[in-house]
Automatic annotation (TrEMBL):
This is Precorrin-4 C(11)-methyltransferase. Keywords: Cobalamin biosynthesis, Methyltransferase, S-adenosyl-L-methionine, Transferase. Its EC number is 2.1.1.133. Pathway: Cofactor biosynthesis; adenosylcobalamin biosynthesis. It holds the Pfam family TP_methylase. Residues 2-206 form the Tetrapyrrole methylase domain. InterPro entries: 4pyrrol_Mease, 4pyrrol_Methylase_sf, 4pyrrole_Mease_sub1, 4pyrrole_Mease_sub2, Cbl_synth_CobM/CibF, Siro_Cobalamin_biosynth, Uropor_MeTrfase_CS. Coiled coil: none annotated. PANTHER family: COBALT-PRECORRIN-4 C(11)-METHYLTRANSFERASE, SIROHEME SYNTHASE-RELATED. GO terms for biological process: methylation. It comes from Deinococcus hohokamensis. GO terms for molecular function: precorrin-4 C11-methyltransferase activity. It is an enzyme of class 2 (transferase).
C-alpha cells in the first residue's frame, strides 16, 4: 500500500518514485476533486482507477480490505504532499489495524509550486527566514485557537494559506494588524495546471482588485515581504565570503560552512 503525493496538478510534477510506484499498482485510488485525471497517465494500463471524491472513510477502507484479500498493491494518490492537509492519518490508522504495511511517497506541495509560478523565493536574508504553512477553519477541519491567524501573523514571516479563497475578506482583516498595508501578497489558483492564474497585489489593495468568488477554490494565498524586491542578497555567493568549498577573493580558507 502506497500513499503517493501527486504534486500540485501537472502530471510531470509527480516525483519519479511516485510515477514508478503508481505504474506498479493494480488498484489506484485518487482524490478526483483535487487530483486531475491527467496524473493517471502514470498508472499501469491494466490498473483499476477509482475516484474517491464521493467516498467516506469506511468505503475506502473496504477497498483496502478487498485489495488485501486479492493480493493487490494499492496506490492511494493525494494532491500535493500527503503530509500536508492530506487526511491520511485516519487511513494510516485503519491500515495498521488491518495489519497492512504502507509507505509514503512525498510530493511537490502547492505552496512551492505557487512560489515557482510566481518566480519567487519565499525566504530572503534580512527580510524573512521563516515560512508558515497554515489554513483557516473549515467545516471539516477547525483550526486550534492557539493557531489562529493574528498570532501567526505577528511573526511577520512568509505566510502561505491553503484553502482559504472563499474567506479572503476575513483573512485580510485578521492580517492587517500584523502586516503593513503595503505588504506584497499573491494569489495563485490551480498552480502548475493549464488553467493556472495568479494575481499580485498588496494586503491593503487586493480586495479592491479581485472578485472573491472567482478565487474560492484551489487557491494559495502568499503574504510576504519577500515577494517584493528587497535589495538583500545571501552571503553564500558573495566573493568575499569563504567556506569549505570556496576561497574568498584575496583571503585564505575559512572554517565556515555554507
Amino acid at each position: 500500500m502506497y500513499f503517493i503525493g501527486a504534486g500540485p496538478g501537472a502530471p510531470d510534477l509527480i516525483t519519479l518514485r511516485g510515477a514508478r510506484v503508481m505504474g506498479q499498482c493494480r488498484l489506484v485510488l485518487y482524490a478526483g476533486s483535487l487530483v486531475p485525471e491527467a496524473v493517471l497517465e502514470h498508472a499501469h494500463p491494466e490498473a483499476e482507477a477509482l475516484n474517491t471524491a464521493g467516498m467516506h472513510l469506511e468505503e475506502q477502507v473496504a477497498l483496502y480490505r478487498r485489495a488485501q484479500a486479492e493480493g493487490l498493491d494499492v496506490a492511494r494518490v493525494h494532491s500535493g504532499d500527503p503530509a500536508i492537509y492530506g487526511a491520511t492519518a485516519e487511513q494510516m490508522r485503519a491500515l495498521r489495524e488491518l495489519g497492512i504495511a504502507y509507505e509514503v511517497v512525498p510530493g511537490v506541495s502547492s505552496f512551492t509550486a505557487s512560489a515557482a509560478a510566481l518566480g519567487a523565493e519565499l525566504t530572503r536574508p534580512g527580510v524573512t527566514q521563516t515560512v508558515i504553512l497554515t489554513r483557516v477553519s473549515g467545516r471539516a477541519s477547525p483550526v486550534p485557537e492557539r493557531e489562529h491567524l493574528p498570532g501567526l501573523a505577528a511573526h511577520g514571516a512568509t505566510l502561505c494559506l491553503f484553502l482559504g479563497g472563499n474567506q479572503l475578506p476575513q483573512i485580510v482583516a485578521q492580517l492587517q494588524d500584523a502586516y503593513p498595508p503595503e505588504t506584497p501578497v499573491a494569489l495563485v489558483q490551480r498552480a502548475s495546471q493549464p488553467d493556472e492564474r495568479q494575481h499580485r497585489s498588496t494586503l491593503g489593495q487586493v480586495l479592491d482588485e479581485i472578485r472573491v468568488s472567482e478565487w474560492a477554490l484551489t487557491t494559495m494565498l502568499i503574504v510576504s515581504p519577500a515577494l517584493g524586491d528587497p535589495e538583500t542578497s545571501s552571503r553564500l555567493y558573495d566573493p568575499a565570503y569563504a567556506h569549505r568549498f570556496r576561497r574568498a577573493e584575496g583571503a585564505g580558507l575559512s572554517g565556515g560552512k555554507p
